[in-house]
Structure of DUF300-domain-containing protein:
Amino acid sequence: MGVLPHLIVGVCGLCALVASLISFEGIRRQLVNYRKPYQQRLVVRIQLMIPLFAVSCYISLRSFRLSLIIEPVREIYEAFVIYTFFSLLTHLLGGERNIVILTSGRPPVSHPPPFNKLLPPVDISDPFSLLAIKRGILQYVWLKPIICLMFALVEITGLNDIAGINVYFVINLIYNISVSVSLYDLALFWKCMYSDLRPFNPWGKFLCVKLIIFASYWQGILLAVLNWVGVLPNDSTGDGYDDGNTLGFAIQNALLCVELIGFAIGHWHSFSWTEYRAEALPGCGRLPFITALKDVFGLGDLLYDFKSTFQGDEYDYRRFDSVEALIAHPTSKSRMARFNEGLRFTDSGRQKYWLPNASTAASGGRAANSKTPLLVKPRAGSIASANVSTRAIYANSMLTVGSKEDAQSVANASMYTSHSIEDNEADEHQDDPSLLEGYVYDDNFFARVKRDRPFGDKNYPVIYDTQEHQNSPQLQRLRREAMARQQRGLA
């Protein structure tokens, strides 16, 4: 008999299979209702955590040797999910720039005790504070592969003790500091933006992500302590298990296999596909299944975000400025920092402008004497370039012309083709009712016009189903107007 009885291993395998099937069905329904790519790609990436955990836990029960290969993959993806959840919350709030504008004028938020005695309050309306929080979350994603590589090197070389220093202890210390900082910054962001996140019912999503990570982390810590004090001794009988396996390690994976069913059900309800159905988003096109799948696994948006966060060049007061004359809270340090950067108010504080500086002129932004707030420098040669209509496929989308999500989506699309829309002319009559009638009744006409939409080129072949036509609010409006004209004619 191995570390655990075969019956328990079989039950764990069945639980892992059930959890994976529930998760895969939820993912499939997301992909066939793929109407919000910016948001749903993040949702699916979070949902993929369930089958990955299920497979890795069951394999670890069957073979300790194989677990040495798959465990690092699971842990790296676990770190990636923390960052993905932060990106999802950011998107729900309209993007990073909208967060800075939304929180302008609010008082800074104090840290949870006891850190409020040591650290100054957090002003998330300062783009540099937002960047610091994002870097704190993302550093775990950057460090986790390095930590796994260091563990592997120590395991292979056997250099556990160098100059009297326990290498395993040092690496584990770095790991615990990194994951603690990442989770703390995520909780800090949650505290700063909770009132704005409440309309999106985020608690279910938050618990689904946090609980599985805490279950994996703290169960492992507890069982490792029990193993260290001798309560759970090593057991390497070799009957289907490899030498070096421990009872505590097996119990941890067995518990996770069973717990994953509950997590899968939680993901089904918290990351539900129903809010992306045609009935919930009338008039909104969708992407084909294969295209949606490519978008989920595309790396362009990740590379773009990793690079921009690491460099931090796109985070400054001018790019995160609003056209409204918002004044930072008196206790905010960013208030004086904005003045030092060149922000000035006029007309008794009702209007504002930025003094010209060298960086504005060098970046190809506004003219030197412009009093218009600098938004985002134009991106030539992209789907969202200045010559292309950037009206979103969903009329009520929070995405704007200059949103970072636009650039991330362009980066994702470039992973599959080198072609992009550069010279298309925007439709001059996109709000004309006759154009909408063309969408509804003429498929060829719609195929030509949709090229001017951000998801209308070959990278994003939008499908506009008959069911969506029937539920379209624009079509319902046209019908009401037609009925009103008929009634006036009869009168």
About this structure: The radius of gyration is 26 Å. The chain has two domains: 6-278, 293-308+390-416+431-490.
